[in-house]
Amino acid sequence: MNAISRRYPLYFALPALLLYVTFFIVPSVTGLGYAFTDWTSYSDQVNFIGWKNFQEIFSPKARYLVYIGNTLIFTVGTIILKTVLGIGLAVLLNEGVKRFVNFYRVIIYLPAVLPTLVVALIFRSILHPATGILNGGLRAIGLNAFALPWLIDPHIAIYSVIGVDSWKGVGYIMVILLAGLQTIPKDYYEAAHIDGANAWQRFRYVTLPMLRPAIVVVSVLNALYALRVFDIVFALTNGGPGYATETIATDIFKSFSEGQYGLGTAVSTILFIILLVVGYFVIRLLERGQARD
Amino acid sequence: MKTFFAAAALAATIFTVSSGAGYADDKVTLTYLTSQGWVLDAHSALYKKFEAETGIAIDAQIVPADQYYNVLKTKLNSGEGPDIFGGQSGVNTLVVDLNVEKNAVDLSGEPWAKQEDPLVSSQATVNGKLYGLTYWDTLGLVWVVNYNKAVFAKYGLSIPTTYAEFKAIAEKLKAAGVQPLYEPIADGWHHVLWFPELGPKYEAGTPGLADALNANKATFANNKDMLTDLTELKDMYDSGYMGQTAIADTYADAPAKLASGSVAMVVGPLAYATTIASQVPGTDPNNFGVFLMPLDDNQILNVNPGGPTMFIYKNSPHVAEAKKFFDWLTQPAQLQYFIDNAPQALTLPFAGVKGKFTPAQQAFMDTYKDKRGTVYQIAVNYINSQWMEIGKDITAMFTGAESPEDVLDSVDKRRAEFAKAAKDPAWN
What average pLDDT score do residues A51-74 get? Predict the structure, then answer.
């Protein structure tokens, strides 16, 4: 370590450091600064107003706590759904299916490359309570009780959004997990088989532990994506009905489009802090896993 | 060799640029920055006619509606405004969004200024100076309940004048399996009409309310008439008059639904029958009648004198040409051409024009000649700017997440935010 330090003096890092400070640190800190001002599009003056924007956000009358709650429900829901379905599909494509494997891989991955807006528009018509094909199909086979008002009932809408987002995102997660599966040596399965392990035991005691690093990676990716979710919510429900599916990112967009720049920056600051905390713990988790390995 | 090519390319560029400049000297092009939906086909046709007659071209730059004010404000604030810019009239918008006293040319002395309907021109006037030309049918575009006459006749119904009568009609239709009202909530703006459009009724209940609201001496919260309006609106939703899928319904589907008779009523403009007939082939426009939105037993006509308006940018090099353009547009021949060729318009707010109201529409307007007032999104500041948010509040009220009182509280809260942001003296 010492030898390396001597060979490469610290000032070698200066150009990179300078670029990083200029283009990442300074704008971020300035951004944080604007969260404490009354900057709007209606006035050319910007005044320091202390914690007022944050008081506003956390006041009991404001709906921000609902938005933060929705974001967390979305995050937890999509992580669970995408990971479970992703593992299932990956295992199926790795071992279960023997023919047309590549064809299935392409089909399952396809939604990930479709533009979110297109997916949302298609699902808005599929999930339409009266004319959508989902409810039409359910009624046709006599399951009238399951033909729910998917996107227009405030208690169901957020779960419908989670469902659509998982449909779109599961292919991407599956590809990563599939790569993880293919690194597991076949010998382990053979050894387990000889020891008399059944299929579930092989999955539980060989596949899952060996797949753990890949699962951690997809969870990090899912969490960071879901906490910042904007497009699918905006295009599917626009935060509605009422405010039932509004998330932090859709609210930031709304604040900015209303010209409330100071308030919008304050909300983004809160999102930044949430991401920072989640990111920190996830990275700690990752490092702990590696240390044990 | 390389140098030679570079020199040749440079010479060619200079030649092109200078010849372009020479061309521009002969012909003036007025740039007109405007929002989607504000330039009708009849407008475009007039611009072409103007160019043919005078050699002055109109270059309409159309910006998507949701980004329009941001684009315009950026251009105005950076001193790079277009020759002409559009904006909704309404004193609040003129002052807060457009800052016309700084950005627009005073048009009070123009020949057409005295010909314009005073109710309309007052919405483009700040401190006694007229700043904009409202080339839009604001008087004929009244939002009313349109109903299918055949359906009403079949069940022996007559038009309601109170909410109780409306409710009785709706119950009869519902019992007969006809959806009483089509209310497209998915669009986010349409169901809001039921609330600020009834401003004249609120004003009648509390004379001077709009002025008091603008002076920050009154609030929406605890206003009896507004509370009645919202409570009855919620009652319509809860009673199922809007059907089961209102939250997913869109306004674009309304003409087909109303024409087919599967729904009996929908809120639309006075001239909606013409639109329905043009969109649904084989429909007789005379099969549709209108009545006022009957919430809070309203019987006062809701007039919105504001509409898309054109302003001349103060720092434009072509102020004289732009004034000439406005003058040309307001000649009787052009006004009449617009009315005759725009299906959306029944009239224009200028003296001496011949409107195309049908006898029924004319009779309707005549009925309320002396009982009309200005809608609240125009009469009261900071309402139009939060239209879509009010829509979300009302949807939340429908689903039970909020109460009518909450909706009114939210309106007050956002008005205060807007007013403070705009440094409104009444709030500071």
Answer: 86
Show Cβ contacts of residue A91 under 8 Å, excluding neighbours closer than 6 positions. A181, A203, A207
Q: Are residues B237 and B100 in the same domain?
A: no
Structure tokens at B331: 């000649």
Does the predicted model carry a pTM greater than 0.80? Answer: no
Among candidate residues B320, B350, B380, the one where a domain is terminated? B350
Let me know if residue B4 belongs to a domain. Answer: no
The verdict on residue B16 lying in a domain is no
Q: Which residues of A touch B77 (CB under 8 A)?
A: 44
In tens, the pLDDT along B147-185 reads: 999 999 999 999 999 999 999 999 999 999 999 999 999
B356 inside domain: no
Contact B244 A61 (CB under 8 A): no
Structural domain containing residue B98: 27-136+306-350
- First and final CA of chain B: distance in angstroms? 71
Cα–Cα distance between B346 and B356 in angstroms, integer? Answer: 5
Q: A15: how many CB neighbours lie within 10 A of its CB?
A: 9
Q: How many domains does chain B have?
A: 2
Q: Is the ipTM of this complex over 0.85?
A: no
B78 and chain A: CB distance < 8 Å anywhere? no
CB distance B290 to B146 below 8 Å: yes
CA distance A172 to B35: 40
Backbone angles phi, psi at A258, to 5 degrees: -85, 0
Please tell me which residue, A31 or B327, carries the higher pLDDT value: B327
Residue B395: left (phi > 0), alpha (psi -120 to 50), or beta? alpha
CA distances from A120 to A124, A208, A224 (A): 6, 33, 21
The answer to whether B413 touches A260, Cβ cutoff 8 Å, is no
* CB–CB contact B248 A260 (8 Å): no
Give yes or no: residues B151 and B267 share one domain: yes
Query: Whose structure tokens read 């905390």?
Result: A277
Q: Tokens 């320091």 appear where?
A: A48
For residues A282 and A138, what is the distance between their CA atoms, to the nearest angstrom?
41
Residue B6 lies in a domain: no
Residue in A152, A243, A259 nearest the CB of B247: A152
- Whether A286 shows a pLDDT value over 70: the answer reads no
Q: Does B418 touch chain A (CB under 8 A)?
A: yes
d(CA A190, CA A114): 40
Any CB–CB contact under 8 A between A243 and chain B?
yes
Give B 242-271 residues with CB within 8 A of chain A.
Answer: 244-245, 247-248
In terms of domains, do B283 and B153 share one?
Answer: yes
Q: B94: domain CATH number? A: 3.40.190.10
How distant, in Å, are the alpha carbons of A13, A16, A24, A31, A265 from that of A20?
Answer: 11, 6, 5, 16, 21
| Inter-chain residue contact A149 with B245, CB threshold 8 Å | yes
**Does A136 reach chain B within 8 Å, measured CB to CB?**
no
Q: Which domains does chain A have, with CATH numbers?
A: 62-292 (1.10.3720.10)
B127 shares a domain with B173: no
Reported as a single tens digit per residue, the pLDDT across B353-409 is: 888 888 888 888 888 888 888 899 888 988 887 888 899 999 999 999 899 999 999
**B330 and B382: one domain?**
no
Count interface pairs A-B at CB distance under 8 A. Answer: 72
* Residues B343 and B316 placed together within one structural domain of the fold: yes
- What lies within 8 Å, CB to CB, of A288 at 6+ separation is none
Q: Taking the C-alpha atoms of B387, B388, B392 and B398 in order, what is their torsion angle to the nearest 10 degrees? A: 60
Q: Are residues B147 and B235 in the same domain?
A: yes
